[in-house]
Fold each of these.
Amino acid sequence: MKLAAAFVLALLLQLGLTASHLWWVLAACQPVLLVVVASARRFDPVGVAWTGLAAGLATDLMTERIIGPGGIAGAVAGFVVAAVVRRFEMEGPLYWIVGSLLAAACSEAVWMLSLATLGVRADHAFAGGLATVAMTSAAGLLVAAGERAWRAWNSPAHKRRRVLRHL
């Protein structure tokens, strides 16, 4: 249920980023890919690929692109992220940083390749792809920092220190 709520929140955030008048580099962020990375903790690679497919198709619908290439790109990115996370047993900040970088890079590469096979011109060039990878990776870094702060705040040692301060 948390993953579904995160998916809806990421879709709304992505819609807000693209709808507002932000600097084009900031608007290139794809928070929906972070949900794909988050699903790698819960599902096997095929399950994460299904999550990536849903994320890519939702992105295609929101941006009024051709339906399909984004879904394929999301599915491939989800499978690759899940396979790498499982293979190298990543967790903590490394999980989010590498996962978001890998998801964004795979998604952009497969999306560009699938558009090239269809003979369709992409709505952004190489610089836009780099901006998408950079901003999605930066969002992954932000999530990693937030998760680390949350774990530190809720750690048993921190709780003991708070109790001792009040005594």
Note: The mean pLDDT is 89.
Amino acid sequence: MKSSSYNQIVYGSLLHPKELRSHGISMDMVEFVRVKGYKRIFNQEPSRRRADTINRAVLNIEKDDDSWFNAILIKNISENSLKELEEREIGYDRLNLRNGLVQYYKDDTIAQNCFVYIGKNGKQNSKILPNIDYFKLCLNGAKSHFDRFYIDYLSTTYQNNLEGIELISDT
């Protein structure tokens, strides 16, 4: 893959501007997008964040033709950033998204040449709840952008509960 012509989709803790900056990514390097055909859910066993409780899940996406989620697109990711992000996303596999699945908020046009990280097979667990600190970081990241983005984050992010899955809330 020629990384300079690809765009990375981020949907979890990298929604937070502080997290983006820690990887040398400024807000002028990103666009806000919607990704069709996938559901965002707190069901991933962590690879880096440690917790010995039921509250240990980090975000993942799952294929679901009837769903979508909002995200940030990092434009024309550099080779150095790609290597650093590969290390960060150790519990995930890189997935090239089919063109037509990613749409910009600003004008509804379609983004091309996008990839996203999806949880490695076998690391999903339907009996765990979100890691509290990670949950807050993601929520505050979504909230730090514009109102519609935050509302969409709340309405497209799921977590496990004893009966199945439910939408998250900010309470």
Note: Residues 10 and 151 are 17 Å apart (CA to CA).
Amino acid sequence: MNAALAGLIFLAALGGSCRGRSEKDIVAGVIADMAARVEKKDTAGLIALLSADYRDFAGRDREQTRAMADEYFRRYRGIKTKLLATRIAMDGDGSAAVEFDVSLYSGVASALRKAVGFDGENYRVACRLRREGGWRVGEARWESIPLDGLFPESLKILREVFPEL
């Protein structure tokens, strides 16, 4: 799986909202929605969550991110995600800094993961969201990380799913 796919994951998580919850709860809920959007290969839904002036760490804007998403969604079948630990810091200016770990796997590996053990890839995603009517991503960065680089709470979640780790 390519590292760019990890970036798509965080984009998927940034839509939707619920009333009656704190802003931090809403942001956490948005992040939790991410995996479903990526698994559905919902490029339009991902891009709708980006600010007009969005840029990722490689300088990609909304249109370049759309092309990247389309390419990876064509390349990989059966994308599966496991959202791990999420850390959210709300800023007083209507923005939030979010950092989360996510594991990705696809195809036959997802069907056989219990038998063959975990063979996915782990990513740490860091992004800044702004309140613009709804929460929108203004910037993002992600990187592949080894198991021992995961947040401790992420490793615990992953070991519950894959006890052989």
Note: Residues 3-161 form a domain with the Nuclear Transport Factor 2; Chain: A, fold (CATH 3.10.450.50).
Amino acid sequence: MIRHDPYAVSPPGEPFDYIVDDEPLRRASPGSPTLLEPAYSALRLAPDSLFRNWRNECVTIREEIGLVHGLGPVAVLHIHGAIFLYPRGFGADVLDFEATVIDPAGEAVISVGAGGAHRAPVQRKLAKVLDWYRTEIKLRDSNSSPLLTVYELWTDGRPLRRAS
């Protein structure tokens, strides 16, 4: 659905990756079909290029276990996001999209609710989400620490000082 967002932000001008935006990542144990613990199976990802409110450039993911014939239990990601289309007035028009990814750590069967000219930017955003997911799976399975969150990356884990 295309909608006008009066507070939309344009995508980062420089190359970026996604990292966890808010709370620390709570990973399932190594070998689990899912990356996230079931009680903490939803999170928001943001670009790692600046410390700012990315609004439409963030994506939210929700993970669950699905049963696929021949594969058994696999992770299923439900991804919600938006892409910046063009500035208009005070803000911009954005396209909201939803995608489902079955077995994101493996062959990744992807179903997307966006097409036409807008398909390519949606696919680029989904590729970044899958890169983040697969990196976290590798780190988890090698007993390495997760990637930094936005907060950790930009504040070195220290609280931000507020201007009075």
Note: The longest strand covers residues 72-87.
